[in-house]
From TrEMBL:
Protein name: Uncharacterized protein
Organism: Niastella yeongjuensis
Amino acid sequence: MSKFKDVVVTLSKKHPETGETVPAGHTYVIGVLGNKKKWYEIESELLNKLSNEDLQKELFKILHPQTHH
């Protein structure tokens, strides 16, 4: 079973699919888990307050959504 620690985090100033430059002051946080790749946009200054582990946890929620019954 996957854990958030398995997520590979990359930060990018370009959109992962289109290659367009991210709006000023923003960064794409890209996560890869196995063969799945997801990302979200974040204000760059918020990255200073977050650890790599925080980013992994956030991406894990997107990459590996828990099914709620």
